[in-house]
Each structure stands twice: as structure tokens, then as C-alpha cells.
Design goal:
Blueprint (H helix, E strand, L loop, with lengths): L1 E5 L3 H14 L4 E5 L3 H9 L3 E3 L8 E6 L6 H8 L3 E7 L5 H10 L4 E7 L9 E8 L2 H12 L3 E4 L2 H25 L10 H13 L4 H10 L3 H13 L2 H23 L1
Parallel strand pairs: 1-2, 1-4, 2-3, 4-5, 5-6, 7-8
Antiparallel strand pairs: 6-7
Helix pairs in contact: 1-5, 3-4, 6-7, 6-9
């Protein structure tokens, strides 16, 4: 497969490595990035090459591994380079899929969202397949061969889910990290220990990535409202909130275990 990866950060490199592992020895990967030195670094550490942002070279498949705020202009700019397939890994789905339809209507098209940071592979990968074919099937199979669980969804279901599992979850964890006092380890409880571990995971990443999530998806306000309701509750109101939370968690547990 002749593959162009636009965006040579962690996620773009993960995608290139995943495809190369499944497609050797026929994989031919090129990196392109707004910062040429980043693309050069990505290419230098693997069997790949760097291409200029103004290239007119065509590729069997183009992957957009760019931030959510940049995905639509990137699709418009680089869709003409795709001969057979094009997809994004940006993390939002409705807008990229519309842009892919507009700018690459004759190509295989999909939006993938790996629900993890590359250092924590493998994991779940959500995908909306707008137009399937052998190239995207090979991409999906490469992800699965690397141990990931690839599942189909819709843009509406995905983007709504991100309000809970990303924007809301990150808000709750970062808020805890911001207000938690530095206490002796001997005082740690099972709950506080887990929260601290999760906060450590969240703060390992890039603030720019998390800022994009917060600005793209709703969810933060609902968490803030819930925290305010808990803070203001008397005993009776708190008990009601507690039972409601218990029902929500119980419902999710039943859904997971079916």
C-alpha cells in the first residue's frame, strides 16, 4: 500500500507503524506535517520518507492524523492526492465525514477514532465507514491484527458518546486534580488512589489535545452543574443524588455485561 500520513505526531506514527506491520514488505509510507522537521523525524525512525506540503504526488490511501480544528481544511487540501481511499483519525466524526463526502466523493471514505493514546495500545477503535472497499478493509484489518477492537458506529452516536467519555470524564478528573491537597500516602483510600492514578494518566498527555476535546464536545458544564448540586445538597437531596448516580452506574454495568 502506498500511504500518505498527513500529521506526523503520535497518532500518525501509530497508524503508519500499524499498517507497515500488517503490510510488509509492500507498505510504502510518506509523512507530511505542518512542521517539516516533525515529518522528517517520523520518516527517519522507520522505513518511510518525508514529502513536502505542496506535493502533487498521488497515493493509494491518504490518512489525516491532524487535530480536530484542522481536519476539514486538511481534507480539502489533501483529498486530491488520494487515488482510492481517504480517512481521518481526528477524534470527531460528523464534520470530517461531511468534508470527505464533498472533497473525495469517489474514494473509499471513513472516520476512525482510536480511543487511546498510542503509548497505551492496543485498545478500542471506533469507525464510521461511509464508503467501503479493499483499501479501508486492509486498514481495519491491520488495526485488528495489532490487537485493537475495531467497531462500527454512527457519527451521531460517536460524537454524543465523546461528551461523556472524553469531555465529561476529563472535566471531572482534572477538577479533582486541581483541588486535591497533597496528603500523606498513608491517608489514601481505594477511591482516592484510583482517582490519582487516572489523573496521572490524563495529565501525561498534551494540554492542546485536551483543550481541543473540551472545545469540540459538550459535557463539562453538566459535570460542573452536578458538582454544584452535590455541594449544595442537604442530607435528603444528597441521598437522592447518590441513588441516581448508583442507578446510572448500575445501568452501565448491566449494559456492558448484557
Amino acid at each position: 500500500m502506498k500511504l500518505l500520513v498527513v500529521g506526523a505526531g503520535e497518532m500518525g506514527r501509530w497508524l503508519a507503524d500499524t499498517v507497515a506491520a500488517a503490510d510488509e514488505p509492500t507498505a510504502e509510507t510518506a509523512f507530511l506535517d505542518a512542521d517539516p522537521s516533525v515529518a522528517a523525524d517520523a520518516a527517519a525512525n522507520r522505513d518511510a520518507r518525508q514529502v513536502d506540503a505542496k506535493t502533487t504526488e498521488r497515493f493509494e490511501c491518504v490518512c489525516l492524523a491532524v487535530p480536530m480544528s484542522a481536519v476539514e481544511p486538511a481534507i480539502e487540501q489533501y483529498a486530491p492526492l488520494a487515488d482510492r481511499a481517504i480517512f481521518d483519525l481526528s477524534g470527531v466524526m460528523d464534520r470530517p465525514l461531511a468534508a470527505l463526502h464533498t472533497h473525495a466523493p469517489d474514494c473509499e471514505r471513513a472516520s476512525f477514532h482510536p480511543l487511546f493514546a498510542p503509548p497505551r495500545v492496543p485498545g478500542n477503535v471506533a469507525v464510521v465507514t461511509a464508503s467501503n472497499g479493499p483499501v479501508l478493509t486492509a486498514i481495519r484489518n491491520a488495526m485488528a491484527a495489532a490487537g485493537n477492537t475495531v467497531f462500527e458506529t454512527t457519527a451521531e452516536e460517536h460524537d454524543r458518546a465523546m461528551e461523556t467519555v472524553q469531555a465529561g470524564a476529563h472535566t471531572a478528573i482534572l477538577a479533582y486534580a486541581l483541588v486535591a491537597d497533597d496528603v500523606r500516602e498513608a491517608f489514601a483510600t481505594p477511591v482516592s488512589t484510583k482517582l490519582t492514578e487516572i489523573a496521572t494518566t490524563v495529565t501525561e498527555g498534551s494540554p492542546e489535545v485536551y483543550a481541543e476535546i473540551q472545545s469540540t464536545f459538550d459535557g463539562a458544564d453538566a459535570v460542573a452543574d452536578a458538582a454544584a448540586a452535590i455541594a449544595a445538597a442537604d442530607d435528603e437531596a444528597f441521598a437522592d443524588l447518590y441513588e441516581t448516580a448508583k442507578e446510572h452506574v448500575g445501568g452501565e454495568r448491566r449494559e456492558r455485561h448484557g
